[in-house]
Amino acid sequence: xxxSSGNYEAFAHPLPPKGVENKQxxxxxxxxxxxxxxxxxxxxxxxPGEKIHILERDPRAGGGxxxxxxxxxxxxxxxxxxxxxxxxxxxxxxxxxxxxxDPSVSVLDYYYWLNKxxxxxxxxxxxxxxxxxxxxxxxxxxxxxACMEIMNLFFTPEEELxxxxxTEYFSDEVLNSxxxxxxRTMFAFENWHSALEMKRYVTRFVxxxxxxxxxxxxxxxxxxxxxxxxxxxxxxxxxxxxxxxxNTHVTDxxxxxxxxxxxxxxxxxxxxxxxxDGPAAVDAAEGVQPDGKxxxxxxxxxxxxxxxxxxxxxxxxxxxxxAHSSFGxxxxxxxxxxxxxxxxxxxxxxxxxxxxxxxxxPEKFCGDPEKSNWESATVTTLDEKILPYIEKICKRDPLxxxxxTGGIVSVKDSSWLLSWTINRQPQFRAQPEGxxxxxxxxxxxxxxGDYVKKxxxxxxxxxxxxxxxxxxxxxxxxxxxxxxxxxxxVPCMMPYxxxxxxxxxxxxxxxxxxxxxxxxxxxxQFAETPRDTIFTTEYSMRTGMEAVYTLLNIDRGVPEVxxxxxxxxxxxxxxxxxxxxxxxxDMDLPFIQRVALKEVLKxxxxxxxxxxxxxxxxx
Length: 619
Description:
By secondary structure, the protein is an alpha/beta fold. The protein is 30% helix and 15% strand. It has 19 helices and 20 strands. The strands form five sheets. Strands 7-6-15-16-17-14-18-13 form an eight-stranded mixed beta sheet, with helices on both faces. Strands 8-3-2-12-19 form a five-stranded parallel beta sheet, with helices on one face. Strands 9-10-11 form a three-stranded antiparallel beta sheet. Strand 2 (24-28), helix 2 (32-43) and strand 3 form a beta-alpha-beta unit. Helix 2 crosses helix 16 (537-551). The longest helix has 15 residues, at 225-239. The radius of gyration is 25 Å and the shape is globular.
Protein backbone atom coordinates (compact mmCIF):
# COMPACT_ATOMS: atom_id res chain seq x y z
CA UNK A 1 0.00 0.00 0.00
CA UNK A 2 1.28 3.44 -0.88
CA UNK A 3 -0.04 7.01 -0.78
CA SER A 4 -0.57 9.26 -3.77
CA SER A 5 -1.96 12.66 -4.72
CA GLY A 6 -3.15 14.17 -7.96
CA ASN A 7 -5.57 13.20 -10.72
CA TYR A 8 -3.46 10.47 -12.32
CA GLU A 9 -3.95 8.00 -9.48
CA ALA A 10 -7.29 9.41 -8.34
CA PHE A 11 -9.06 8.85 -11.68
CA ALA A 12 -7.50 5.45 -12.45
CA HIS A 13 -9.17 2.08 -11.85
CA PRO A 14 -6.84 -0.66 -10.60
CA LEU A 15 -6.57 -4.11 -12.13
CA PRO A 16 -8.16 -6.95 -10.13
CA PRO A 17 -5.66 -8.18 -7.52
CA LYS A 18 -4.25 -11.65 -8.04
CA GLY A 19 -6.01 -14.49 -6.26
CA VAL A 20 -9.00 -12.45 -5.09
CA GLU A 21 -11.36 -15.10 -6.45
CA ASN A 22 -10.03 -17.53 -3.85
CA LYS A 23 -10.55 -15.24 -0.85
CA GLN A 24 -13.38 -14.39 1.53
CA UNK A 25 -13.74 -11.44 3.86
CA UNK A 26 -15.26 -11.12 7.32
CA UNK A 27 -15.87 -7.57 8.50
CA UNK A 28 -16.55 -7.11 12.22
CA UNK A 29 -18.71 -4.02 12.63
CA UNK A 30 -20.81 -2.16 10.07
CA UNK A 31 -19.94 1.42 10.96
CA UNK A 32 -18.40 3.71 8.35
CA UNK A 33 -15.06 1.89 8.49
CA UNK A 34 -16.61 -1.55 7.96
CA UNK A 35 -18.94 -0.40 5.19
CA UNK A 36 -16.11 1.48 3.47
CA UNK A 37 -13.90 -1.63 3.63
CA UNK A 38 -16.69 -3.67 2.05
CA UNK A 39 -17.20 -1.07 -0.69
CA UNK A 40 -13.49 -1.00 -1.50
CA UNK A 41 -13.43 -4.82 -1.58
CA UNK A 42 -16.22 -4.72 -4.17
CA UNK A 43 -15.13 -1.72 -6.24
CA UNK A 44 -11.34 -1.96 -6.26
CA UNK A 45 -10.72 -5.48 -4.98
CA UNK A 46 -13.29 -6.98 -7.37
CA UNK A 47 -14.29 -9.46 -4.68
CA PRO A 48 -17.70 -11.06 -5.34
CA GLY A 49 -20.27 -9.72 -2.88
CA GLU A 50 -21.37 -13.14 -1.68
CA LYS A 51 -17.85 -13.70 -0.36
CA ILE A 52 -18.03 -10.63 1.88
CA HIS A 53 -19.67 -11.17 5.28
CA ILE A 54 -20.45 -8.23 7.58
CA LEU A 55 -20.95 -9.25 11.23
CA GLU A 56 -22.90 -6.61 13.15
CA ARG A 57 -24.16 -6.73 16.73
CA ASP A 58 -26.99 -4.23 16.08
CA PRO A 59 -30.10 -4.96 13.99
CA ARG A 60 -29.01 -2.41 11.35
CA ALA A 61 -25.83 -0.98 9.87
CA GLY A 62 -24.25 2.36 10.64
CA GLY A 63 -22.62 2.17 14.07
CA GLY A 64 -22.38 5.69 15.45
CA UNK A 65 -23.75 7.19 12.21
CA UNK A 66 -27.37 6.75 13.16
CA UNK A 67 -30.64 8.52 12.54
CA UNK A 68 -33.74 6.54 13.38
CA UNK A 69 -37.38 6.83 14.31
CA UNK A 70 -37.88 4.46 17.24
CA UNK A 71 -41.46 3.32 17.79
CA UNK A 72 -42.56 4.67 21.16
CA UNK A 73 -39.53 6.98 21.48
CA UNK A 74 -39.41 9.24 18.45
CA UNK A 75 -36.65 10.59 16.24
CA UNK A 76 -33.12 10.08 17.51
CA UNK A 77 -29.67 11.15 16.33
CA UNK A 78 -26.80 10.30 18.64
CA UNK A 79 -24.57 12.71 16.77
CA UNK A 80 -23.94 14.44 13.48
CA UNK A 81 -21.17 14.68 10.90
CA UNK A 82 -19.39 17.76 9.57
CA UNK A 83 -17.60 17.25 6.27
CA UNK A 84 -14.58 18.86 4.67
CA UNK A 85 -13.91 19.32 0.95
CA UNK A 86 -10.55 17.60 1.46
CA UNK A 87 -11.79 14.28 2.82
CA UNK A 88 -9.90 12.62 0.00
CA UNK A 89 -10.78 8.98 0.68
CA UNK A 90 -14.42 9.71 1.41
CA UNK A 91 -15.00 11.51 -1.87
CA UNK A 92 -12.94 8.91 -3.76
CA UNK A 93 -15.51 6.32 -2.71
CA UNK A 94 -18.68 8.41 -2.78
CA UNK A 95 -18.16 9.38 -6.43
CA UNK A 96 -19.20 5.78 -7.22
CA UNK A 97 -22.03 5.26 -4.70
CA UNK A 98 -25.56 6.21 -5.87
CA UNK A 99 -27.19 8.76 -3.56
CA UNK A 100 -30.35 8.03 -1.57
CA UNK A 101 -31.86 11.36 -2.60
CA ASP A 102 -31.42 10.74 -6.35
CA PRO A 103 -30.05 7.30 -7.30
CA SER A 104 -29.24 8.56 -10.80
CA VAL A 105 -26.36 10.62 -9.38
CA SER A 106 -23.57 9.80 -6.96
CA VAL A 107 -23.46 10.74 -3.29
CA LEU A 108 -20.60 13.10 -4.13
CA ASP A 109 -22.39 14.87 -7.00
CA TYR A 110 -25.61 15.35 -5.05
CA TYR A 111 -23.69 16.63 -2.04
CA TYR A 112 -21.57 18.95 -4.23
CA TRP A 113 -24.56 20.48 -5.98
CA LEU A 114 -26.45 20.86 -2.69
CA ASN A 115 -23.65 22.71 -0.93
CA LYS A 116 -22.96 24.91 -3.96
CA UNK A 117 -26.64 25.89 -4.11
CA UNK A 118 -27.03 26.22 -0.33
CA UNK A 119 -23.62 27.03 1.19
CA UNK A 120 -23.15 26.63 4.91
CA UNK A 121 -22.30 29.45 7.31
CA UNK A 122 -23.46 30.55 10.74
CA UNK A 123 -25.08 33.88 11.56
CA UNK A 124 -24.80 33.35 15.33
CA UNK A 125 -22.04 31.13 16.66
CA UNK A 126 -22.72 31.58 20.39
CA UNK A 127 -25.29 33.00 22.79
CA UNK A 128 -25.34 34.14 26.40
CA UNK A 129 -27.80 35.79 28.79
CA UNK A 130 -30.70 33.58 27.68
CA UNK A 131 -30.59 33.72 23.91
CA UNK A 132 -28.70 36.94 23.34
CA UNK A 133 -25.95 36.99 20.73
CA UNK A 134 -22.62 36.56 22.53
CA UNK A 135 -21.03 38.69 19.80
CA UNK A 136 -18.04 36.51 19.19
CA UNK A 137 -18.16 38.36 15.84
CA UNK A 138 -15.99 35.86 13.98
CA UNK A 139 -13.03 36.75 16.21
CA UNK A 140 -10.66 34.34 17.96
CA UNK A 141 -9.62 36.97 20.55
CA UNK A 142 -6.22 35.37 21.05
CA UNK A 143 -3.37 37.29 22.59
CA UNK A 144 0.08 37.07 21.05
CA UNK A 145 1.08 34.79 23.93
CA ALA A 146 -1.85 32.48 23.15
CA CYS A 147 -0.92 32.42 19.46
CA MET A 148 2.62 31.44 20.39
CA GLU A 149 1.28 28.58 22.54
CA ILE A 150 -0.72 27.26 19.60
CA MET A 151 2.28 27.67 17.32
CA ASN A 152 4.47 25.84 19.81
CA LEU A 153 2.10 22.86 19.78
CA PHE A 154 1.94 22.98 15.99
CA PHE A 155 5.72 22.57 15.71
CA THR A 156 6.19 20.06 18.54
CA PRO A 157 6.97 16.56 17.16
CA GLU A 158 4.44 13.84 17.95
CA GLU A 159 7.18 11.88 19.71
CA GLU A 160 7.26 14.57 22.41
CA LEU A 161 3.48 14.56 22.86
CA UNK A 162 3.09 10.99 24.05
CA UNK A 163 0.57 10.82 26.92
CA UNK A 164 0.55 14.63 27.23
CA UNK A 165 -2.67 16.58 27.90
CA UNK A 166 -3.77 19.83 26.31
CA THR A 167 -3.27 21.90 29.46
CA GLU A 168 0.43 21.08 29.38
CA TYR A 169 0.63 23.29 26.27
CA PHE A 170 -2.28 25.73 26.59
CA SER A 171 -2.63 28.21 29.44
CA ASP A 172 -5.68 30.31 30.26
CA GLU A 173 -4.55 32.66 27.49
CA VAL A 174 -5.91 30.03 25.07
CA LEU A 175 -8.50 28.32 27.26
CA ASN A 176 -10.40 31.55 27.99
CA SER A 177 -10.49 32.68 24.35
CA UNK A 178 -13.16 32.47 21.67
CA UNK A 179 -10.80 30.10 19.86
CA UNK A 180 -11.17 27.49 22.59
CA UNK A 181 -14.93 28.01 22.82
CA UNK A 182 -15.21 27.36 19.08
CA UNK A 183 -12.80 24.46 19.16
CA ARG A 184 -14.00 22.47 22.16
CA THR A 185 -17.69 22.78 21.28
CA MET A 186 -17.18 21.93 17.61
CA PHE A 187 -14.89 18.93 18.17
CA ALA A 188 -15.84 18.01 21.79
CA PHE A 189 -12.31 18.40 23.14
CA GLU A 190 -11.87 18.62 26.90
CA ASN A 191 -8.94 20.28 28.70
CA TRP A 192 -7.64 16.87 29.81
CA HIS A 193 -7.66 15.32 26.34
CA SER A 194 -4.68 14.39 24.18
CA ALA A 195 -2.25 17.12 23.18
CA LEU A 196 -1.05 14.81 20.42
CA GLU A 197 -4.51 14.66 18.85
CA MET A 198 -4.94 18.41 19.30
CA LYS A 199 -1.74 18.92 17.32
CA ARG A 200 -3.01 16.61 14.58
CA TYR A 201 -6.22 18.61 14.34
CA VAL A 202 -4.42 21.94 14.07
CA THR A 203 -2.07 20.66 11.38
CA ARG A 204 -4.75 18.65 9.52
CA PHE A 205 -7.22 21.54 9.24
CA VAL A 206 -4.88 24.52 9.10
CA UNK A 207 -6.41 25.42 5.71
CA UNK A 208 -9.82 25.82 7.37
CA UNK A 209 -8.80 27.89 10.36
CA UNK A 210 -10.34 31.02 8.90
CA UNK A 211 -13.69 29.27 8.48
CA UNK A 212 -13.84 28.07 12.08
CA UNK A 213 -15.64 31.09 13.65
CA UNK A 214 -18.63 30.98 11.25
CA UNK A 215 -18.46 27.34 10.04
CA UNK A 216 -18.09 28.45 6.42
CA UNK A 217 -15.48 25.70 6.12
CA UNK A 218 -18.09 23.00 6.72
CA UNK A 219 -20.53 21.15 4.52
CA UNK A 220 -23.51 19.00 5.49
CA UNK A 221 -25.66 16.29 3.93
CA UNK A 222 -29.32 16.78 2.95
CA UNK A 223 -30.71 14.36 5.52
CA UNK A 224 -29.33 12.79 8.68
CA UNK A 225 -26.06 10.87 8.50
CA UNK A 226 -27.78 7.47 8.38
CA UNK A 227 -30.02 8.21 5.45
CA UNK A 228 -27.59 10.33 3.42
CA UNK A 229 -24.39 8.33 4.06
CA UNK A 230 -25.03 4.87 5.48
CA UNK A 231 -28.08 3.80 3.45
CA UNK A 232 -26.43 4.54 0.07
CA UNK A 233 -23.48 2.32 1.04
CA UNK A 234 -25.77 -0.43 2.32
CA UNK A 235 -27.83 -0.31 -0.89
CA UNK A 236 -24.66 -0.46 -3.00
CA UNK A 237 -23.38 -3.48 -1.08
CA UNK A 238 -26.71 -5.31 -1.11
CA UNK A 239 -26.95 -4.75 -4.87
CA UNK A 240 -23.60 -6.57 -5.15
CA UNK A 241 -24.80 -9.49 -2.99
CA UNK A 242 -22.83 -8.70 0.19
CA UNK A 243 -23.92 -10.82 3.16
CA UNK A 244 -25.11 -8.76 6.16
CA UNK A 245 -25.44 -10.73 9.42
CA UNK A 246 -27.14 -8.58 12.06
CA ASN A 247 -27.67 -9.30 15.79
CA THR A 248 -24.29 -11.03 15.69
CA HIS A 249 -21.97 -10.36 18.62
CA VAL A 250 -18.34 -11.22 17.87
CA THR A 251 -16.91 -12.09 21.27
CA ASP A 252 -13.34 -12.99 20.27
CA UNK A 253 -10.89 -13.39 17.41
CA UNK A 254 -8.08 -15.86 17.94
CA UNK A 255 -4.60 -15.51 16.46
CA UNK A 256 -1.61 -17.79 16.06
CA UNK A 257 0.64 -15.41 17.97
CA UNK A 258 -0.29 -15.96 21.63
CA UNK A 259 3.31 -16.50 22.73
CA UNK A 260 5.06 -15.09 19.66
CA UNK A 261 7.49 -12.21 19.47
CA UNK A 262 6.27 -8.89 18.09
CA UNK A 263 7.79 -9.36 14.66
CA UNK A 264 6.60 -12.93 14.11
CA UNK A 265 4.07 -13.92 11.49
CA UNK A 266 0.53 -13.38 12.76
CA UNK A 267 -2.52 -15.21 11.44
CA UNK A 268 -6.17 -14.84 12.46
CA UNK A 269 -7.38 -18.40 12.95
CA UNK A 270 -10.88 -18.23 14.39
CA UNK A 271 -13.85 -15.91 14.96
CA UNK A 272 -16.06 -16.64 17.96
CA UNK A 273 -19.53 -15.15 18.00
CA UNK A 274 -22.97 -15.26 19.55
CA UNK A 275 -26.14 -14.68 17.56
CA UNK A 276 -28.91 -13.04 19.59
CA ASP A 277 -32.15 -12.77 17.66
CA GLY A 278 -34.68 -12.04 20.42
CA PRO A 279 -36.27 -8.57 20.79
CA ALA A 280 -34.84 -7.99 24.28
CA ALA A 281 -31.30 -8.58 23.03
CA VAL A 282 -31.90 -6.29 20.06
CA ASP A 283 -33.17 -3.47 22.31
CA ALA A 284 -30.23 -3.93 24.67
CA ALA A 285 -27.77 -3.71 21.78
CA GLU A 286 -29.32 -0.44 20.67
CA GLY A 287 -29.52 1.07 24.15
CA VAL A 288 -33.32 1.15 24.30
CA GLN A 289 -34.64 0.62 27.82
CA PRO A 290 -37.51 -1.82 28.48
CA ASP A 291 -40.86 -0.06 28.73
CA GLY A 292 -41.94 -2.18 31.70
CA LYS A 293 -45.27 -2.95 30.04
CA UNK A 294 -44.48 -5.59 27.43
CA UNK A 295 -43.70 -9.11 28.60
CA UNK A 296 -40.19 -10.05 27.39
CA UNK A 297 -40.11 -12.65 24.61
CA UNK A 298 -37.76 -15.61 24.80
CA UNK A 299 -34.36 -14.74 23.35
CA UNK A 300 -32.72 -17.00 20.83
CA UNK A 301 -28.98 -17.23 21.53
CA UNK A 302 -26.57 -19.38 19.53
CA UNK A 303 -22.80 -19.63 19.90
CA UNK A 304 -20.77 -20.27 16.74
CA UNK A 305 -17.19 -20.46 15.60
CA UNK A 306 -15.86 -19.54 12.15
CA UNK A 307 -12.51 -21.21 11.34
CA UNK A 308 -10.16 -19.08 9.24
CA UNK A 309 -7.45 -19.80 6.68
CA UNK A 310 -4.90 -17.49 5.06
CA UNK A 311 -7.46 -16.78 2.33
CA UNK A 312 -10.02 -15.54 4.87
CA UNK A 313 -9.49 -11.83 5.42
CA UNK A 314 -10.69 -10.33 8.72
CA UNK A 315 -11.34 -6.62 9.25
CA UNK A 316 -11.74 -5.83 12.95
CA UNK A 317 -13.28 -2.67 14.43
CA UNK A 318 -11.71 -2.38 17.90
CA UNK A 319 -13.40 -0.30 20.59
CA UNK A 320 -16.59 1.68 20.06
CA UNK A 321 -17.63 5.29 20.55
CA UNK A 322 -21.25 4.35 21.05
CA ALA A 323 -20.78 1.20 23.14
CA HIS A 324 -23.19 1.21 26.07
CA SER A 325 -25.11 4.16 24.71
CA SER A 326 -28.44 4.43 26.43
CA PHE A 327 -31.56 6.19 25.19
CA GLY A 328 -33.93 7.79 27.62
CA UNK A 329 -37.30 9.24 26.67
CA UNK A 330 -39.45 12.29 27.20
CA UNK A 331 -40.17 11.06 30.73
CA UNK A 332 -37.09 9.00 31.59
CA UNK A 333 -33.37 9.84 31.80
CA UNK A 334 -30.80 7.95 29.76
CA UNK A 335 -28.79 5.60 31.97
CA UNK A 336 -25.07 6.10 32.50
CA UNK A 337 -23.99 2.44 32.27
CA UNK A 338 -20.35 2.12 31.19
CA UNK A 339 -19.83 -1.48 32.41
CA UNK A 340 -18.27 -3.62 29.67
CA UNK A 341 -19.99 -6.80 28.48
CA UNK A 342 -19.01 -9.66 26.14
CA UNK A 343 -19.64 -8.80 22.51
CA UNK A 344 -19.15 -5.05 22.83
CA UNK A 345 -16.30 -3.40 20.99
CA UNK A 346 -14.23 -2.83 24.12
CA UNK A 347 -14.45 -6.33 25.54
CA UNK A 348 -13.59 -7.72 22.10
CA UNK A 349 -10.54 -5.45 21.81
CA UNK A 350 -9.34 -6.44 25.30
CA UNK A 351 -9.49 -10.13 24.37
CA UNK A 352 -7.63 -9.46 21.14
CA UNK A 353 -5.02 -7.20 22.77
CA UNK A 354 -4.19 -9.89 25.32
CA UNK A 355 -2.75 -11.98 22.47
CA UNK A 356 -0.07 -9.53 21.27
CA UNK A 357 1.37 -6.19 22.40
CA UNK A 358 1.00 -5.02 18.79
CA UNK A 359 -2.77 -5.13 19.08
CA UNK A 360 -2.98 -2.00 21.23
CA UNK A 361 -3.90 -1.04 24.78
CA PRO A 362 -7.67 -0.54 25.00
CA GLU A 363 -7.60 0.34 28.70
CA LYS A 364 -5.91 3.66 27.79
CA PHE A 365 -9.16 4.70 26.11
CA CYS A 366 -11.96 2.97 28.02
CA GLY A 367 -10.49 3.11 31.53
CA ASP A 368 -12.11 6.35 32.70
CA PRO A 369 -15.61 6.92 31.25
CA GLU A 370 -16.07 9.95 33.50
CA LYS A 371 -13.57 11.69 31.22
CA SER A 372 -14.89 10.36 27.90
CA ASN A 373 -18.66 10.88 28.12
CA TRP A 374 -21.14 13.43 26.98
CA GLU A 375 -24.87 13.37 26.45
CA SER A 376 -26.91 14.37 23.41
CA ALA A 377 -30.62 14.74 22.82
CA THR A 378 -32.90 14.98 19.81
CA VAL A 379 -35.72 17.49 20.21
CA THR A 380 -38.60 17.21 17.75
CA THR A 381 -40.90 20.21 17.72
CA LEU A 382 -44.57 19.29 17.47
CA ASP A 383 -45.95 22.73 16.61
CA GLU A 384 -44.65 26.20 15.70
CA LYS A 385 -44.60 27.78 19.16
CA ILE A 386 -40.82 27.45 19.70
CA LEU A 387 -39.77 28.31 16.15
CA PRO A 388 -39.75 32.13 16.63
CA TYR A 389 -37.19 31.81 19.44
CA ILE A 390 -35.01 29.67 17.18
CA GLU A 391 -35.34 32.05 14.25
CA LYS A 392 -34.45 35.05 16.41
CA ILE A 393 -31.08 33.44 17.18
CA CYS A 394 -30.15 31.78 13.89
CA LYS A 395 -31.79 34.49 11.71
CA ARG A 396 -33.21 31.87 9.32
CA ASP A 397 -36.54 30.13 8.91
CA PRO A 398 -36.18 26.60 10.34
CA LEU A 399 -38.77 25.31 7.84
CA UNK A 400 -37.12 26.79 4.73
CA UNK A 401 -35.51 23.49 3.71
CA UNK A 402 -32.11 25.16 3.58
CA UNK A 403 -29.27 25.82 6.03
CA UNK A 404 -30.69 26.83 9.42
CA THR A 405 -28.09 27.33 12.16
CA GLY A 406 -25.13 26.60 9.88
CA GLY A 407 -23.46 24.49 12.58
CA ILE A 408 -23.79 24.42 16.33
CA VAL A 409 -24.86 27.39 18.43
CA SER A 410 -22.94 27.20 21.70
CA VAL A 411 -24.39 28.59 24.92
CA LYS A 412 -21.39 30.38 26.35
CA ASP A 413 -22.75 30.68 29.90
CA SER A 414 -24.33 27.22 30.13
CA SER A 415 -23.22 25.12 33.09
CA TRP A 416 -23.52 22.05 30.85
CA LEU A 417 -21.73 23.89 28.00
CA LEU A 418 -24.79 23.21 25.90
CA SER A 419 -24.63 23.45 22.10
CA TRP A 420 -27.43 22.88 19.61
CA THR A 421 -27.92 22.74 15.87
CA ILE A 422 -30.61 22.46 13.24
CA ASN A 423 -29.60 21.14 9.84
CA ARG A 424 -31.70 21.24 6.70
CA GLN A 425 -35.28 20.20 7.42
CA PRO A 426 -36.75 17.71 7.19
CA GLN A 427 -33.84 15.75 8.65
CA PHE A 428 -35.68 12.49 8.03
CA ARG A 429 -37.37 11.67 4.74
CA ALA A 430 -40.51 10.52 6.59
CA GLN A 431 -40.54 13.46 9.01
CA PRO A 432 -44.01 15.09 9.17
CA GLU A 433 -44.37 18.49 7.56
CA GLY A 434 -44.00 21.37 10.00
CA UNK A 435 -41.84 19.47 12.49
CA UNK A 436 -38.21 20.43 13.18
CA UNK A 437 -35.55 18.06 14.53
CA UNK A 438 -33.00 19.76 16.76
CA UNK A 439 -29.81 18.07 17.92
CA UNK A 440 -28.15 19.26 21.11
CA UNK A 441 -25.42 18.07 23.44
CA UNK A 442 -23.75 18.98 26.70
CA UNK A 443 -20.06 18.47 27.43
CA UNK A 444 -20.45 18.60 31.21
CA UNK A 445 -22.99 15.95 32.23
CA UNK A 446 -22.21 15.83 35.96
CA UNK A 447 -23.01 19.41 37.01
CA UNK A 448 -26.42 20.98 37.74
CA GLY A 449 -28.11 22.98 35.00
CA ASP A 450 -28.96 26.67 35.12
CA TYR A 451 -32.74 26.22 35.03
CA VAL A 452 -33.09 22.53 35.85
CA LYS A 453 -30.99 22.18 38.99
CA LYS A 454 -29.89 18.64 38.18
CA UNK A 455 -26.94 17.14 36.29
CA UNK A 456 -27.76 16.53 32.65
CA UNK A 457 -27.23 12.77 33.03
CA UNK A 458 -30.04 12.66 35.63
CA UNK A 459 -32.53 14.57 33.49
CA UNK A 460 -35.47 13.27 31.50
CA UNK A 461 -35.90 14.36 27.91
CA UNK A 462 -38.46 16.93 29.00
CA UNK A 463 -36.06 18.41 31.59
CA UNK A 464 -33.22 18.65 29.05
CA UNK A 465 -35.63 20.42 26.72
CA UNK A 466 -36.55 22.84 29.53
CA UNK A 467 -32.87 23.72 30.01
CA UNK A 468 -32.51 24.34 26.27
CA UNK A 469 -35.66 26.48 26.13
CA UNK A 470 -34.36 28.51 29.08
CA UNK A 471 -31.20 29.31 27.14
CA UNK A 472 -33.26 30.15 24.03
CA UNK A 473 -34.88 32.92 26.03
CA UNK A 474 -38.35 31.41 26.36
CA UNK A 475 -40.23 33.13 29.23
CA UNK A 476 -39.89 30.98 32.34
CA UNK A 477 -43.65 30.73 32.86
CA UNK A 478 -43.96 29.02 29.44
CA UNK A 479 -40.98 26.67 29.56
CA UNK A 480 -42.57 23.68 31.26
CA UNK A 481 -45.65 23.60 29.06
CA UNK A 482 -43.68 24.00 25.83
CA UNK A 483 -41.25 21.25 26.83
CA UNK A 484 -44.15 18.93 27.62
CA UNK A 485 -46.64 19.69 24.85
CA UNK A 486 -44.69 21.28 21.99
CA UNK A 487 -41.67 18.95 21.92
CA UNK A 488 -40.65 15.34 22.15
CA UNK A 489 -37.11 14.97 23.47
CA VAL A 490 -35.06 11.76 23.42
CA PRO A 491 -31.79 11.91 25.40
CA CYS A 492 -28.82 9.65 24.74
CA MET A 493 -25.95 9.08 27.18
CA MET A 494 -22.66 7.90 25.63
CA PRO A 495 -19.98 6.89 28.16
CA TYR A 496 -17.21 6.42 25.56
CA UNK A 497 -18.05 9.01 22.92
CA UNK A 498 -14.68 10.81 23.22
CA UNK A 499 -12.61 7.84 24.32
CA UNK A 500 -10.35 8.33 21.31
CA UNK A 501 -9.34 11.77 22.64
CA UNK A 502 -7.85 10.32 25.82
CA UNK A 503 -4.08 10.88 26.14
CA UNK A 504 -2.19 8.19 24.25
CA UNK A 505 1.27 7.06 23.24
CA UNK A 506 2.73 5.12 20.34
CA UNK A 507 1.45 1.55 20.36
CA UNK A 508 -1.77 2.32 22.25
CA UNK A 509 -3.66 1.95 18.97
CA UNK A 510 -2.80 -0.98 16.67
CA UNK A 511 -1.55 -0.22 13.18
CA UNK A 512 -4.15 -0.76 10.47
CA UNK A 513 -2.12 -3.79 9.39
CA UNK A 514 0.29 -4.80 12.18
CA UNK A 515 3.78 -6.05 11.42
CA UNK A 516 3.63 -9.68 10.30
CA UNK A 517 -0.16 -9.73 9.86
CA UNK A 518 -1.13 -12.17 7.11
CA UNK A 519 -4.92 -12.03 6.87
CA UNK A 520 -6.27 -9.36 9.19
CA UNK A 521 -6.42 -5.61 9.74
CA UNK A 522 -7.80 -3.13 12.26
CA UNK A 523 -10.14 -0.41 11.05
CA UNK A 524 -12.03 2.53 12.53
CA GLN A 525 -11.30 5.24 15.05
CA PHE A 526 -8.98 3.14 17.22
CA ALA A 527 -6.65 1.95 14.45
CA GLU A 528 -3.49 3.96 13.87
CA THR A 529 -2.83 5.68 10.55
CA PRO A 530 -0.45 8.64 10.21
CA ARG A 531 -1.41 12.33 10.04
CA ASP A 532 -5.19 12.00 9.93
CA THR A 533 -7.58 12.99 12.73
CA ILE A 534 -10.08 10.88 14.63
CA PHE A 535 -13.76 11.74 15.12
CA THR A 536 -14.11 12.31 11.37
CA THR A 537 -15.85 10.32 8.66
CA GLU A 538 -12.61 10.47 6.69
CA TYR A 539 -10.58 8.67 9.37
CA SER A 540 -12.92 5.70 9.50
CA MET A 541 -13.12 5.37 5.72
CA ARG A 542 -9.38 5.87 5.29
CA THR A 543 -8.57 2.95 7.60
CA GLY A 544 -11.00 0.78 5.61
CA MET A 545 -9.33 1.69 2.33
CA GLU A 546 -5.80 1.21 3.68
CA ALA A 547 -6.73 -2.19 5.12
CA VAL A 548 -8.23 -3.48 1.87
CA TYR A 549 -5.46 -2.10 -0.32
CA THR A 550 -2.79 -3.65 1.93
CA LEU A 551 -4.27 -7.11 2.37
CA LEU A 552 -5.20 -7.46 -1.31
CA ASN A 553 -2.09 -5.63 -2.55
CA ILE A 554 -4.18 -3.39 -4.81
CA ASP A 555 -1.94 -1.49 -7.21
CA ARG A 556 -3.33 2.01 -6.87
CA GLY A 557 -2.43 4.78 -4.46
CA VAL A 558 -4.50 5.58 -1.39
CA PRO A 559 -5.08 9.37 -1.46
CA GLU A 560 -2.78 10.99 1.05
CA VAL A 561 -4.07 13.23 3.81
CA UNK A 562 -4.50 16.72 2.38
CA UNK A 563 -1.15 18.46 2.70
CA UNK A 564 -2.10 21.99 3.71
CA UNK A 565 0.27 21.76 6.66
CA UNK A 566 3.11 21.77 4.07
CA UNK A 567 1.63 24.64 2.02
CA UNK A 568 3.18 27.98 2.92
CA UNK A 569 0.09 29.78 1.59
CA UNK A 570 -2.17 27.96 4.07
CA UNK A 571 0.30 28.54 6.90
CA UNK A 572 0.60 32.29 6.32
CA UNK A 573 -3.15 32.65 5.83
CA UNK A 574 -3.84 30.76 9.07
CA UNK A 575 -1.27 32.84 10.97
CA UNK A 576 -2.98 36.08 9.97
CA UNK A 577 -6.51 34.82 10.59
CA UNK A 578 -5.62 33.33 13.95
CA UNK A 579 -4.65 36.86 14.97
CA UNK A 580 -7.99 38.20 13.70
CA UNK A 581 -6.39 39.79 10.64
CA UNK A 582 -3.58 41.60 12.41
CA UNK A 583 -0.35 41.72 10.48
CA UNK A 584 2.91 40.14 11.59
CA UNK A 585 4.35 43.63 11.92
CA ASP A 586 1.74 44.39 14.59
CA MET A 587 2.99 41.70 16.96
CA ASP A 588 4.15 42.80 20.39
CA LEU A 589 7.79 41.78 20.03
CA PRO A 590 10.83 42.50 22.21
CA PHE A 591 13.02 45.34 20.93
CA ILE A 592 15.73 43.15 19.36
CA GLN A 593 13.22 40.94 17.53
CA ARG A 594 11.35 44.02 16.33
CA VAL A 595 14.55 45.46 14.87
CA ALA A 596 15.40 42.10 13.27
CA LEU A 597 11.96 41.89 11.65
CA LYS A 598 12.36 45.39 10.29
CA GLU A 599 15.69 44.45 8.72
CA VAL A 600 14.23 41.30 7.15
CA LEU A 601 11.39 43.30 5.60
CA LYS A 602 13.93 45.70 4.13
CA UNK A 603 15.78 42.79 2.54
CA UNK A 604 12.67 41.47 0.76
CA UNK A 605 11.47 44.83 -0.56
CA UNK A 606 10.55 44.55 -4.25
CA UNK A 607 10.72 40.74 -4.28
CA UNK A 608 8.11 38.07 -4.95
CA UNK A 609 8.29 37.21 -1.26
CA UNK A 610 7.15 40.70 -0.30
CA UNK A 611 4.38 40.48 -2.91
CA UNK A 612 3.28 37.13 -1.50
CA UNK A 613 3.19 38.35 2.12
CA UNK A 614 1.16 41.41 1.10
CA UNK A 615 -1.29 39.26 -0.88
CA UNK A 616 -2.04 37.28 2.29
CA UNK A 617 -2.14 40.44 4.44
CA UNK A 618 0.79 39.31 6.55
CA UNK A 619 2.52 42.67 6.10
